[in-house]
Please model this.
Amino acid sequence: MNESAIFDAGRIDPALRVSLIVASDRTGLIGTDTGLPWHLPGDLRRFRAVTMGKPIVMGRKTRDSIGRALPGRFNIVLTHNPDYRADDTCVVNTPAAAITQAVEELKRTGGNEVMVIGGAEIYRVFFPRADRVYLTLVDGEFAGTTRFPTEKFAHYPFTATSETVFPADEKNAHACRILILDRTESGPAWTWESIQNGTT
Model:
């Protein structure tokens, strides 16, 4: 998938906010062959709250790992496979088509935000067009196979506009920091290292 296609797609609706939502460990790890490397019910509730009622864009592998369309959201799957089908899901073959479908849904329901929920290649292709990143930074380093494209922060500057720390508890085995990172045109930008350390 061509990253530059996202910029053309942005002309469809300049008011549209494209947001990535992701949970990662300190190294940028976001997944294994079977799903998430951790179990954090609190963060899953937050994911549901932030994405509810909005169009969500995902890759085929993410959709298959979930196993169903996420209720209360307009599910869009971006895949190279023109024959792919899934119940209660809009299937598209280009990033521009994903944005177009999201805009049409937002016209119907109101709002201006589309949520990109993974996996790694989908994050990578939408990063140049992203206006916001909702990041859960899980305390620890885990084994896995899929990584968030953290190197993109060096090319597309973001700054933290919100940060909340959640300690581990009896239901959530790992502490985490939840950040909202907004695209910035001026001022200090956050690298992946500064995101981990909490400093620009």
